[in-house]
Amino acid sequence: MPFVFDAYGTLFDVHAAIARHRAAAGPDADRFSEIWRAKQLEYTWTLTLAGHYTEFWTLTQRALDFAFARVPSVDPALRGKLLDAYLTLDAFADARAVLRQLKERGERTGILSNGSPKMLAAAVETAGLKDDLDAVLSVDAIRMFKPRPEVYAMVTAEFSCAPEDVVFVSSNRWDVMGASAFGFRPVWVNRARAPEEYDDWAPAAVVPDLSGLMAISG
After folding, report:
1. Catalytic residue among 6, 13, 132, 140
2. Which of 13, 14, 113, 118 has the greatest count of CB atoms below 10 A from its CB?
3. Domain boundary residue, one of 29, 60, 87
4. Angle, to 10 degrees, between the axis of helix 173-182 and the axis of helix 149-159?
């Protein structure tokens, strides 16, 4: 049974880029990073709804430019450094250990991400996760973003399985909703202790961090 992970926010810390340059970014660093992430996701949804596609790396840059415009206290000279940092985001501390444990007990593992192939390859390499993943799937192959069902269907095609066979892991509640609607067994990694939403599309389990996956059978 495959365990398939969202990448950004689940395995990789999307706020790690600003964290590396917090002193230079100044007191509005956290707000800046939140806006960057929010606009990045917003662009994926609006483009997909409109029937268009632009790769995630370009949207990441556009979202960063919006954040600079919205938070003028952060020096635009940081742009290049922040983009370099985003390509090599830090993995969460539990990511490598949990992936390794899943592989050791015989599970198949993978990533399903909005990220472009270049972004995912760099992040996986930096975090040392390559040997613990059977597949790294990017929406770039079908040119539409989550939560379109066609995106989740990439997993069942890759692993030759039924949706109910897949344990899908994400820290993004909207992604969990999409996975639930598709028929996966979604696990919500609620690190931020966010309130529940999407009541009609509940997760199969809620865990505070990735280590909680070890109690779930594939």
Report:
1. 6
2. 113
3. 87
4. 60
